[in-house]
Amino acid sequence: MNISSHYKLYHFIPWTRVKIYKMLILSIIPTVLFYFLGWKWLAIPWVPVALLGTATAFISGFKNTQTYNRMWEARQVYGAIINNSRSFGILIKDFIRSEDKVLEKQLHQEIIYRHFAWLTALRFQLRETKSWENIKTKSYNKEYLDYYKVPEWESSLDEELKPFLSEEEYRYILSTKNRATQIIALQSSQLRKLNEEEKISGFNYGLIESHLKELYDQQGKCERIKNFPYPRQFSSINLYFTNALCLLLPLGFIGEFSKMTEKFGENIIWLVIPFSVLLGWVFLVLEQIGESTENPFEGNANDIPITQISRNIEIDLREMLGEKELPPALQAVNNILM
Predict the structure, then answer these.
(1) Alpha carbon of 272 to those of 49, 54, 167: distances in Å?
(2) C-alpha–C-alpha distance, residues 216 and 180, integer Å
(3) Helices within the chain (DSSP H only)
(4) How remote is the C-alpha of 284 from its chain's centroid?
(5) What's the pLDDT score for residue 30?
(6) Beta bridge partners of 2
(7) Residues 296-303: what's their mean pLDDT?
(8) Cβ atoms < 10 Å from Cβ of 314
(9) Model pLDDT, residue 15
(10) CB-CB contact of 309 with 78 (8 Å)
(11) From its phi and psi, is residue 304 left (phi > 0), alpha (psi between -120 and 50) or beta?
């Protein structure tokens, strides 16, 4: 997530420079052919270009709206995870009781630390790269990775889970496929055992279990966003329309500027290049921005900052346990917070 007031041009222009090069080539070639070789047939009426531009603007606007909705839903889900994690911490601390206060404190720590393991396993699962994601396949995205680091790619799940689980649980969780799911299953098993031992009353046991269900619901929503891409048919048609428009733009501008040569001279035809580059860049960048927003967990600079959110939850719950040595809050790198 970018936390600055806006992207600076010295970041934005390099990120989109390939689009600028593309429009320069598409506009220079037909202009040169028209001016020097007299290929007058390259000039086309503006009407078909305008019609295609209207369709492209519509589909680009639709895509950007839907990809923004995917990102905002992901942020809402993680907001619910924050709230439920805090509530879960309070319930564990106040509802699990024992005459042995040392044992009581140990149980609180064990269950809350297991929740940290769930947060860790979930964020690692969400940062796994899918075939349709763009962060590692598009050159302009890979270059931008120089400005920030994705913590889940810099460390391993094995190392980060170890402080939060017992040795037996650690080995078991690493042997499973959906680790976050199985960690909550371990939570439920222990809560049932504590209920049977009368360390949790029946009503309180049901209340805590309902919070585990909520966490499962939120995990499932994250997995749905992660594992179901923005529909490929809409993504493809937006790409095709945008490229077709960029191809026709210079020809339409040639047709328009060629009508002005009698009044302003033949050199006015060279204005085709800057106008085509500017307008084509706008549509190409709209397409690229939609592409960079559609997968809110992939490790992009515009992603939901799930690592920072998980760390903040950990700090809050450690304070509930009365711990004084807290992990530091994550800081933005070049205004990018992951």
Answers:
(1) 14, 20, 69
(2) 9
(3) 9-15, 17-36, 46-95, 101-126, 139-144, 151-154, 157-161, 167-174, 179-196, 202-227, 232-258, 261-264, 272-293, 306-320
(4) 20
(5) 95
(6) 336
(7) 92
(8) 21
(9) 86
(10) yes
(11) beta
Q: How many residues does the chain have?
A: 338
| Residue 15, phi-psi category: left (phi > 0), alpha (psi -120 to 50), beta (remainder) | alpha
Q: What is the pTM of this model?
A: 0.93
Tokens 């064990």, residue located:
110
Task: Count other Cβ atoms within 10 Å, centred on residue 253.
Answer: 25
Residue 224 phi, psi dihedral angles, 5° rounding = -65, -45
Which amino acid is present at 131?
S
Locate tokens 């960029």: which residue? 246
Angle between helix 232-258 and 46-95 (nearest 10): 150
Would you state the pLDDT for residue 226? Answer: 96
pLDDT band at 147 (very low <50, low <70, confident <90, very high): confident
- pLDDT (mean) for 138-146: 82
Task: Compute the average pLDDT of residues 168-178.
Answer: 96
Write the CB contacts of 208 (distance below 8 Å, at least 6 apart in sequence): 88, 91, 92, 95, 191, 200
User: Where is 296: in which H helix or E strand?
Assistant: none
pLDDT confidence tier of residue 156, bands split at 50, 70 and 90: very high
Does residue 107 surpass a pLDDT of 90? yes
pLDDT single digits (tens) 217-264? 999 999 999 999 999 888 899 999 999 999 999 999 999 998 888 788
Only one residue has tokens 């040569």, namely: 261
Whole-number CA gyration radius for the chain: 27
Calculate the CA 57 to chain-centre distance: 24
Angle at 183 between CA 181 and CA 187, to 5 degrees: 115
Alpha-carbon separation of residue 263 from 155, 172, 266 (angstroms): 66, 81, 9
